[in-house]
Amino acid sequence: MSQDGIVLVASVSIFGNDKVLIIKENKPTALDKWNFPSGHIEYGEDILYSARREVKEETGLDVKLIGTTGVYNFISNTNNQVILFHFIGEVIGGTLNLEEDEITDSKWIKVNDLLAFENEDLREPHVIKKIIDNLLEENIYSISVFNEQLFNSSY
């Protein structure tokens, strides 16, 4: 979702067999850049649902969200303010099937091997590296910090 230059994004580090999945993007603003599966949160969409939807669209995998490394607020390379909600997920179904137009490659890799990537190889490297640091330091918080969507509440 974007409003006055503010973009809301859900991102997921997907774990399987002690490795994390990264994808190489083929988007105009991130050509040949490695990233975690992620995308815009649509208007009216629950953040947790958005994270699972983006993973499914980009990778074909179904995930269970089991934690979060937090919320990251930054100015992107396209000069938008981005508020990124980053989650930890584990595969519960589906088959790896990359979204053809937007994703060109994927790798299952040990988290500490992500440190070897050069800044120019990563999308928003300062943010990705902070996420990697949080994963390595196990700065992971319960998914319960995210509440259910409250749009139809009786307030």
UniProtKB/TrEMBL annotation:
<comment type="similarity">
    <text>Belongs to the Nudix hydrolase family.</text>
</comment>
<keyword id="KW-0378">Hydrolase</keyword>
<feature type="domain" description="Nudix hydrolase">
    <location>
        <begin position="5"/>
        <end position="136"/>
    </location>
</feature>
<protein>
    <submittedName>
        <fullName>NUDIX hydrolase</fullName>
    </submittedName>
</protein>
<dbReference type="Pfam" id="PF00293">
    <property type="entry name" value="NUDIX"/>
</dbReference>
<dbReference type="InterPro" id="IPR000086">
    <property type="entry name" value="NUDIX_hydrolase_dom"/>
</dbReference>
<dbReference type="GO" id="GO:0016787">
    <property type="term" value="F:hydrolase activity"/>
</dbReference>
<dbReference type="InterPro" id="IPR015797">
    <property type="entry name" value="NUDIX_hydrolase-like_dom_sf"/>
</dbReference>
<dbReference type="InterPro" id="IPR020476">
    <property type="entry name" value="Nudix_hydrolase"/>
</dbReference>
